[in-house]
Amino acid sequence: MKLSVCSIFDSIDGEYNAFKGAGQLSTFIRLQGCNLRCTYCDTEQAQERASINKMEIDDILSHVNCSKVTITGGEPLLQKEGVIELCKRLTAKDIKVTIETNGSIAFGDDFQDLMEDDVRFVVDYKLTSSGENESMAKDMFADDLYEEDVIKFVIGSRDDYEEACKLVCANLFGWTAQIVFSPMLYKNNKTIEEHYDMAIAQDIVKWMLEDELNDVIFSLQIHKMIWWNKPIEEEY
Predict the structure, then answer these.
(1) Distance of CA 122 to the CA centre of its chain
(2) In angstroms, rounded to a whole number, what is the distance separating the alpha carbons of residues 82 and 59?
(3) Domain-located, residue 234
(4) What does the longest C-alpha to C-alpha distance in the chain come to?
(5) Residue 235 domain-assigned (yes or no)
(6) What is the pLDDT of residues 91-140, one digit of tens each?
(7) Which residue of 48, 118, 134, 235 is most buried, as measured by CB atoms within 10 A?
(8) Strand, helix or coil for residue 83
(9) Model-level pTM?
(10) Bridge partner list, 216
(11) Phi and psi angles of residue 161, each rounded to the nearest 5 degrees, phi first
(12) Domain assignment of residue 89, yes or no
C-alpha cells in the first residue's frame, strides 16, 4: 500500500496533544493533498493532491527515528485506508501516533481499535474567518473523539475568540475531547520574524482569564518560535 507524501522530517511537537502536551520529539509524516483552503494555511505546499511521491509504507517506516509520530498534511484522512495501515504498523512497534486532521472528514469507528492503543487525534474546528466553517463534519466532534483527543480552535481576532467560546461554553455538541485555543500569529508566508504578532496571544490569555476558561488549554506553536528566522512554509 502506498501513500502520497509531501515530506518526512524529525522535529518536536510544537502544539498541544494527548502525549505529554507539547515539546516531545516526533517524526512528522506530512501527507499530500487537502480538501480545504483555509485563509491562514501555512502548508500550501501540501494542498494539491499530486500523484507524485507515492511511498510504500515500508519505505515510510524506514524514515521514522522517534518513538512518537505525527501524521499531518494536507489532510491525512483523504488517504484513510493507508493511514490506518500505517498506524497499525507504527503501534505494533510501540510508537505513539498523533493524527492532525482538519475537521471536515468523519471517521466513525474506523480508528476505534487503534485509539484504544496509542493513536490520538488533534482535530481543527474551523471558525468563520477560516473560510471553511461550513465544511465541518460537526457530528464527528462528539461521536468519534475520545476524552484524550483534542479539538483545536485557531484564533486570530476577538470575533474568533467569541465564536469559539459560544461553541465551547454552550457545549451544544456534547464534546468530551480536550479544548485548545491556538493564536494565529501570522497571516502570510514571510519569515516569522517579519510578520509575527504576539499581541493576539496576549489578548487570548487575557480574555481566557476574564472569562475563567479553566477547562480550555492555551497552546502556542513553539516550533515556530524556536525556528523564528525560517520561512513559514519550510519544515522544522
Answers:
(1) 5
(2) 13
(3) no
(4) 51
(5) no
(6) 999 999 999 999 999 988 888 888 877 999 999 999 999 999 999 999 89
(7) 118
(8) helix
(9) 0.91
(10) 179
(11) -60, -45
(12) yes
Closest by Cα among 70, 94, 86, 61 to 22:
70
Q: Is the pLDDT of residue 9 over 60?
A: yes
Helix axes 199-211, 158-170, angle to 10 degrees: 30
Neighbouring residues of 195: CB distance < 8 A, sequence distance ≥ 6: 186, 187, 188
Q: Where are the alpha helices (DSSP H) in the chain?
A: 57-61, 80-92, 112-115, 138-143, 158-170, 199-211, 222-226
SS3 26: strand
The answer to whether 148 touches 154, Cβ cutoff 8 Å, is: no
φ, ψ at 117 (rounded to 5°)? -100, -110
Q: How far apart are CA 60 and CA 82, in angstroms?
A: 11
Number of separate domains in the chain: 1
Contact of 56 with 2, CB cutoff 8 Å: yes
Q: 58 is in which domain, residue-wise?
A: 2-226
**Cβ 160 vs Cβ 168: under 8 Å:** no
Residue 214 placed within a domain: yes
pLDDT in tens, 32-64: 999 999 988 888 888 887 666 899 999 999 999
C-beta of residue 175 within 8 angstroms of C-beta of residue 145: yes
Q: H or E stretch including 22?
A: none
CATH of the domain at 21: 3.20.20.70
Contact 232, 196 (CB under 8 A): no
